[in-house]
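User: Here's a protein and a ligand (zinc ion). What would the complex look like?
Assistant: Let me lay out the input and then the predicted complex.
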Amino acid sequence: MVIDEKLGNDYIIGCECDDFFIVKRLGPSVECPHCGKTELPSAMLTQWTLTHEDVERAGSVYSIAAT
Ligand SMILES: [Zn+2]
């Protein structure tokens, strides 16, 4: 599960089951409403920071899904 895009305070999460959903607030864990898989937001945020540290506005978020 990865953060596909960040929109203000909302996060668009992409799951391995090819489902995408919006999380208003990242709690202790994020659960996919489609398949029920859970992920730690801290891990996703770390990945997001690593891939977007030089990007103010992520114009191409699909680079995440491609890796
Ligand atoms: Zn899922």
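Summary: The two ends are 13 Å apart (CA to CA).
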